UniProtKB/TrEMBL annotation, chains A, B:
Gene3D superfamilies reported in the protein's UniProt record: Siroheme synthase, domain 2, Spermidine synthase, tetramerisation domain, Vaccinia Virus protein VP39
Organism name: Anas platyrhynchos platyrhynchos
One Pfam family it belongs to: Spermine_synth
GO MF, one example: spermine synthase activity
Keyword annotations: Polyamine biosynthesis, Transferase
InterPro entries: PABS, PABS_CS, SAM-dependent_MTases_sf, Spermidine_synt_N, Spermidine_synt_N_sf, Spermine_synthase_animal, SpmSyn_N
Protein family (similarity comment): Belongs to the spermidine/spermine synthase family.
Full protein name: Spermine synthase
Top-level lineage group: Eukaryota
Any one of the GO BP annotations: spermine biosynthetic process
Gene: SMS
Domain PABS: 124-330
Length: 330, 330
């Protein structure tokens, strides 16, 4: 947390009634001016005030007063010391105090979010597939490479272990064994002696778990050799030693686009007991059919059905893994 | 998402080298000015530029250029329409485009976070115990009351079901059965015929799960009747019908501070097979001993040991529930 970055802090007040914008400005002005900050005020006719406060050290604050009763404070400062954090907190404490004096009990809600660290060496913010903001306790960039297909990052989190992030989407953490188990049928399937086809799955988690269950043969088709290279080195809790070789007694890994492979198998009449689709949510393919994500998913499903035995089973994620991670617990 | 709130968007650029602040400003100025925004520029001697752009409709933007090679854009607008989101996105797209033209490949990282919604009717941001920012997909405030001890909120999330939040700390979601099972010993304990004491646990989850296992007697000591009232109505997936009555065939719920109860039991020689400490991370107590959180925890532990049989077991959370929810999966 002491790493160099811009620290952006926010403090929001929802008032119980419309605001006398000028009174709020007058009450808070001294708090900023006591810090030696210089003020610039913009006054809209119908939209309230924006006051900007600038400090000599490069920090600045915005005070935005909306007349319907919303007061938003932003404070941005660049520093690599804990001291900056304390100064910011003290200033925001004073603003909060002054606002409470001014409005007595008539503030509906006060909200101070954890400061957002911007431009630091390590990016802590990895939104979910449904666009929610989530901060991780990342303390190390373990791997960061561009393959011909995607950006591959492996970041270490104190809480979740190493996390695989493909082109910005959180794919799997070392702590996500439950995801792997879920997509395998939650322990209710008997893989012994079975023929299994895994589409994608470059982190090796599914392959590692299924190989333990004595299948006849598992074929995994992963497009990106570099995902395998990164994971076999840094996601060993997920994949064990299964990616150390692309061939084992009861498994093989093909480094190929799965669409032509599925077509070939369909043509040859090669059939499987299980097809497990572990492709990324935003598909990567070298095939021209990929007009849209949904068409791609339908194509994968159609082709999978062609290589599935009469009583075979098809497993896929119905949600992003990040959601799975939680829904698993229901 | 279409509810009335201020939408605060950010767009950050980490450059590959130090920045010519003036060149960046000159390149981006037109993007804002084309929107009819008026500019105010502050130029520090050693700390770069801050440009503020103001639009007639009450929106504004900050462009902060740090000379060591960091460019941060903030855009704040108040609206209750999707249109505002699209306009913001278009403006940020243009900024990104212009920056990429200016620096060609020499931008190390571009980061655009999901917009933060500020001052809306429903608060979506509930930080973790370790201070990380997390946004939930809250769509309804189900319950929001102040008890004599704390603020009690139950919020509905599409993903997690109803979530119990005590004084701002996420306590338990209806999807968190795994947490309840973990604190009960992960299914490895035999509660049949046993005497069990639960400290706290007002959501009723532990009580409900243990009662199913035919214990001799479970005593739950919860300080806050209002937590029970809220949970028995809105967290039924967690507590079933167990909180409908404070007494059942094999359980009783005492609405009391657990410290005097523990002291009384210790004095009486009342002994238990299991003590399960499910108190909130920040303790609530009416007892004077509570000088600090750690002293409180030690006191609870000391007293618990006094009421525990020789071969009895003490379970507690070693981490906040929010962490548990994930660590459970390891």
């Amino acid at each position: 947390m002491a790493a160099a970055a811009a620290r952006h802090s926010t403090l929001d007040f929802m008032l119980g009634a419309t605001a006398d914008c000028n009174a709020v400005l007058k009450a808070l002005q001294p708090v900023f001016q006591e810090q030696g900050m210089t003020e610039t005020v913009h006054n809209w006719e119908d939209h309230g005030y924006l006051a900007t406060y600038i400090q000599k050290n490069g920090s600045f604050a915005n005070l935005r007063i909306y007349p319907h009763g919303l007061v938003l404070v932003d404070l941005q400062s660049y520093n690599d010391q804990t001291k900056g954090k304390e100064e910011t907190d003290r200033l925001l404490d004073k603003v909060e105090e002054r606002m409470k004096e001014l409005f007595h009990g008539n503030i509906k809600r006060v909200k101070r979010l954890p400061a957002i660290l911007r431009g630091g060496a390590i990016d802590r913010y990895w939104p979910t597939a449904d666009g929610r903001l989530v901060e991780y306790d990342i303390d190390e960039v373990v791997y960061d490479e561009d393959s011909p297909f995607q950006n591959i990052k492996i970041l270490h989190s104190k809480q979740f272990g190493n996390i695989l992030i493909l082109s910005g989407d959180v794919n799997l953490a070392e702590s996500d064994l439950a995801y792997t188990q879920a997509i395998m049928g939650s322990g209710k399937e008997n893989y012994a002696g079975k023929e299994v086809l895994i589409l994608g799955g470059g982190d090796g988690g599914i392959l590692y778990e299924i190989v333990k269950l004595k299948p006849k043969m598992v074929t995994m088709v992963e497009i990106d050799q570099m995902v395998i290279d990164g994971c076999k080195k840094y996601m060993r809790k997920t994949c064990g030693d299964v990616l150390d070789n692309l061939k084992g007694e009861c498994y093989q890994v093909l480094i190929e686009d799965c669409i032509p492979v599925l077509k070939r198998y369909a043509k040859e009449g090669r059939m499987f007991d299980y097809v497990i689709n572990d492709l990324t949510a935003v598909p990567i393919s070298t095939s021209p059919e990929e007009d849209s994500t949904w068409e791609f998913l339908r194509l994968i499903l159609d082709l999978s059905m062609k290589v599935l035995k009469q009583d075979g089973k098809y497993f896929t994620q119905i949600l992003q893994k990040d959601s799975w991670r939680k829904l698993m617990l229901e």
